[in-house]
Amino acid sequence: MTFRTRLLTGFLLLVSSTLSAGNWQVIQHPHFNLIFDQSIEAEARRTASRLAVYLDLHLTELPIERGLPPTDIVLMTDAHIANGFVGIFPYRSIWYNRPAPFAQLEWLDVLAVHEGRHIVQFNQSRDSAWVRMVSFLFGEAGQGAFLLLLPDWYLEGDATVSETTLTEGGRGRVASFDLWYRTDLLTQEPYDYERAMLGTGFDRIPYIGPYVLGYYFTGYLRRTYGDDLFDEALDDIGQWTGWTFNAAIRERTGKNLDALYDDMLNELTTQWRHQLTTELTTDAPMSEWNSRYPVWAEGDQSAMLTLGLTERPRLVFETAGQITRSIEVPTQVARHYRSGSKTRAISVLNERACWVLERAHLNHPFISYGDIECVEPDDRRHRLTNNDKLTSLIQTPDGFKAHRFDAQRRSSLVHFSADGTELTQWALPTHTLAYDLFAQGDKLYFVLSGSDRDGIYRLDTRSNQPPAPVVLAQQESLRAPTVTDHWLVFTSDRSGRDQLMAQHRNTQTQYQLTESPFGAYYPVWNASEQQLNFADYQSDGMQQRSQTFTGDELPASHWVSVSPMPTRKVWVDALIPATPALAEPSQSDWEVSQYSIAKNLWNPYSWAILGDTSSISGTLHSLDTLSKLALSASAGYHFEANDWFGSLAAQYRLDSGPRINAGWAKTIDETTLNTGMSLPMAVQNRLGQSQFLLQAGVEQRFQPDNDDTFLSTTLSAAYQHQRAMQAIETPLGIAETINTRFNLNDNELSALSDTRLALAGWHSRHALNARLGSQWLNDETPLLLDSPLFTTPDAQGLTLQGDVDYRINLGPVGAGLGSLLYWRNTEISLNGRAQLTDSTTETAVGLSFSPNLTFFRNPVLTTSPQLSVYYLPGEEAFQVTASVRIANF
């Protein structure tokens, strides 16, 4: 058996041995293939029923003349992440499992309506002749080109409008959804359309997301210019009269998007001002955005989460107003406070701080966990559970109470001991989410969402009775239950803004405690001080406030009695169908079949044929829906050499994590075969991310005069500490890669060590990046990259390369450059370069200028052209270099 045959046979045996792994099933529909694990068949049937209805409704608003082809949708229920997406390369939709508090919607219902809208949006390109032509020539690149011409505020905003109009929930009904945007517009001079849409990286607030801006802008345009505006405009994208999205909208409205955005702002801010009870001005100076969220208070001691634009999140302990302790908090934990969810994530008891930390599986891309992590009073950090599926927790004198949401979409409350040992479990309705837990004695209070009766519930942990509702949600978002002897305090947005409410525990009479112009959140009762601390949102972030709260049975004089609220109007009220969008569809008439991994491995998504006067070639790429087998192939013919060339590369992901690699390539001069195995690993290190790669392989080169066999290895490790929201670099990042190449024929070893370091500079807009490359070469092919400043690093023996860059971002620009480019910010850097061998020393110092730009007004497509001027002392000469880096493409 030849080497080539052994190579191919080994690869095929390894792949075939894993094809039967897993228990994947599929529900097939003319518009989708819903792929799922057999353990959640009932949930999949329910989701398929809803998705079918939503897709029909979407197609009514955005019809596709050529029809909607089936989309592969995968329910990744082992992924403990609250997310989902529709993507290309390859085209598919992935839905993750962990629910998020979402305005009285069950999580898969959210994804069915939101991602279902994206599926219809993406396939609007099928009605475009130029997209069909590009797709015929290049595969999904045609669809990709179409999507790059669409602003993300339209894609996400239109889907968010659908959440609100086609369901009884959706983010458009949640007051905290637009909190940053609403407050900024009412207190500061508004940014223009381009800056609001694209940002600069250094804006007044952390960001204006495409969901919020898009919800209001898309809703305004549909209400004002007709519900079919976008359907007609999308048909013109790429046409001569409407090449850009802006031109297509202008063709139908007579105005550019910047003018339409101003019109929308005038109407929106006028409506918001009418809803306020206090007069606001936009000329007050704004200090830097910095938020303080109350977490715990007892006597003269307290703890709060602080979060700023240029500072990483920290939990700060104070005694009598003086800081006594400060610990850094994982960004993902702080996200619960700054996001639209506004849920509690940190629990403090006796100066021990705990939270649930999301962790990725070591080497599986679609598995993740939620485990308890604690920081002790002496600042020791440790994890108490391992590979659990927790979402939230509260510390109690006898340990923890936590919520679990497992891969089968079962929901439960769990009692853990103080060391993380599981003691008791209480079942909750399937696919529901419990959050904002609060304990008082044997009673556990929490908010329940995703059920038929969302609201605040109470569980008696000493009885066998199911949780009982205390406050049922009535077209409102409820959060943060806090219990005193006579009162249940919580937040509600029933008035259109989040305010603190109090309900008498016996009479159920409700009162409003605050009248915040923007929103009040996170009540914490300090019993000994008779104070209720809370976060009051202002233009410069969440500010801690307090009011007297004795806890007496009688209400205070400034409390306002709450009467039943009328149905609250939403921004897109005029777009809501007159009849309910979704009845309860049947779940029993779906045919479920086994999903074959082997039959679906071949999934070509991109191809091209290219040529010039010397050669012609074609390429093809394939990746299956479950990301198991990646294939790349090319073939061509060289006219002058009168010979053909080609390549084939394959990588197969085993369920256990390792990747099997195999490849073949033929050039004019040689043929190579290779096989190997790689194991990528990722570790969530509490305050940062570590990544590792182990790789080994064998390559055989066949040349006319000789054959060589190489054994190669790669070992890499990297760590990156979390950064502040507007910092340009991590405060600490380090990476080390070691490559070796051993020639088995000549017994010669070549090796490369590449070490990189990233540090924060003297300011959040400064950073230091350094690299040291060390090469030991025993053959003719360098392992170091060629530098445009120095000679090719092909000297035998030791070669060293060093780079040092001190980067300085000059801050926001926010300027358009014609219709294609937008200038976000500018960076300069001071550079040092060196290359040393046994016989030569080459050095250079320079200055670089790099504007950060976006293409097509699309924040997904960014570019950073760089112009550098270097002085080379050894040659006493200057040299100019230019490069272009395209990111996020």
UniProtKB/TrEMBL annotation:
Residues of the signal peptide: 1-21
Question: The organism sits in which domain of life?
Answer: Bacteria
List the InterPro entries: 6-blade_b-propeller_TolB-like (IPR011042)
Q: What is this protein called?
A: Uncharacterized protein
Key word Signal present:
yes
Q: From what organism does this protein derive?
A: Reinekea blandensis MED297
What the entry lists under SUPFAM superfamilies is as follows: DPP6 N-terminal domain-like
Supply the alphabetized keyword list: Signal
